[in-house]
Amino acid sequence: MRKPPYHHGNLRAVLLQTAMRLIREVGPAGFTLREVARRANVSHNAPYRHFRNKDQLLAAVATEGFRELTAAMRTAAESQPSAWERLRRSGLAYISFAVRRPEHFTVMFDTPLNPRDDPVCAKAGEEAFGTLLSFIAYCQRQRELPPGDPLPLALVAWSLVHGIGKLANANRFPFHSKTELMKFSEKALDGALGGMRRKPG
Amino acid sequence: MRKPPYHHGNLRAVLLQTAMRLIREVGPAGFTLREVARRANVSHNAPYRHFRNKDQLLAAVATEGFRELTAAMRTAAESQPSAWERLRRSGLAYISFAVRRPEHFTVMFDTPLNPRDDPVCAKAGEEAFGTLLSFIAYCQRQRELPPGDPLPLALVAWSLVHGIGKLANANRFPFHSKTELMKFSEKALDGALGGMRRKPG
DNA sequence: GGTCCAATGTGGACACTGCCAACATCGATT
DNA sequence: AATCGATGTTGGCAGTGTCCACATTGGACC
Predict the structure, then answer these.
(1) Is B199 within a domain?
(2) Which of residues 129-188 of B touch A (CB under 8 A)?
(3) What gap in Å lies between CA A151 and CA A133, rounded to an integer?
(4) How many domains are there within chain B?
(5) Which of A147, B80, B146, B195 could make an S-S bridge to B85, C-beta 3.0–4.6 Å?
(6) Domain with A37 in it
(7) CATH no. for residue A27?
(8) Residue of A nearest to B158 (CA)
(9) pLDDT per position in chain B (201 positions), as tens?
């Protein structure tokens, strides 16, 4: 029975893990730096050796979230036949992520991002949007969306799925199951984005 | 020079006003019950005679916000000739409100609503959505949108404007002025909702 | 192999918060 | 005029984020 070493070894990673679990359990409101430290069996000040402050730890959590979101969108889209189907699936994956990890999603988007504070997080966020943008551009190359600058189209698509995710999490929708929500989301994407297919941009 | 009376008179209203101003200044994160009391020249415990706790005060702030939002949408729509134009204007008013009062908007939507906790707030929120719904239904009566249940259409429109508002507030858009944002929003509404015009629902 | 040092841990302190309890004041009802 | 409930006040408690001084250590350097 040896006593635990004074130095942890990979505390930073453990803190991040613990923080993500805690956010999931208690939400951003109940989230506490000291509780993270407690669960990591470490003094209340240890986290400060790895994160400048509470916000920086949350930014790291958000960064991880953006990476997972990007991965989820890519996975959902891959092996889909048509460009259009890839776009649809990635949009649905976005919504699915939002409602499956509501607290994480909140941390990622409900802090006005100052890229100066955490460029890594900003980069991860831009990459998530970038994958959506790439699917839009792919649709254009396949003539499934009108040609031109893909950016505005991507912003519209993003706004739509983001709005659905946020409103669903805020309990603003009349749906009683995730299945219902996803069915609605499909129709929403088809209706809104589909309406812009093959028309002059 | 008379000393201030022991009993304030209309402290509840003053607290609400003060809270709204404070939210505007410091945002939901820095918002503090004690600071509200301080600014109202009242002891740190006085607010508890009028609001059960901090969340209830915030709920009251949110309620007021929903009323303002509803009014803004109605005002923007009125005296517009076509049903379609009314829908457009009310949607733009929603976005405009979101970016003009970002903190207030956050308080309104970024707390998972439990209608049990504050039915008045829930009602005010539903009414805001109800006005959007009514404009959709009006479009349908004027044959500017396909007939059928207006609810899904309204939810799509809501998601879109909500998403735009949220992403704009989170600094996620590449626009450099509110004008640019509103121009984009117009195109977004026309493209997404316009695409669903006059097609089988 | 011994010495230093920067990285990483600890405990203590401070100001601040939300909320609770006990007490003070006062206007309306009797 | 007495009273009583509504509405104020002061004081206290536990918990928080962050700063400071101090402890421990593994590895670089001679």
Answers:
(1) no
(2) 129, 151-152, 155-156, 158-164, 166-167, 169-174, 184, 187-188
(3) 7
(4) 2
(5) B80
(6) 1-51
(7) 1.10.10
(8) A163
(9) 345 676 777 999 999 999 999 999 999 999 999 999 999 999 999 999 999 999 999 999 999 999 999 999 999 999 999 999 999 999 999 999 999 999 999 999 998 778 888 999 999 999 999 999 999 999 999 999 999 999 999 999 999 999 999 999 999 999 999 999 999 999 999 999 998 886 554
Which among A7, A60, A69, A9 is positioned nearest to A33, based on CA atoms? A60
Based on the fold, state whether residues A43 and A75 are members of the same structural domain. no
Q: What is the rounded distance in angstroms from the CA atom of residue A24 to the CA atom of residue B158? A: 27
Say what the pTM is. Answer: 0.94
CA to C1' distance (Å), from B10 to D2: 27
Q: Say how far apart CA B77 and CA B135 lie, in whole Å.
A: 9
User: Nearest residue of A to residue B155 by CA position?
Assistant: A173
**Which residue among A102, A159, A191 places its CB closest to the CB of B188?**
A159
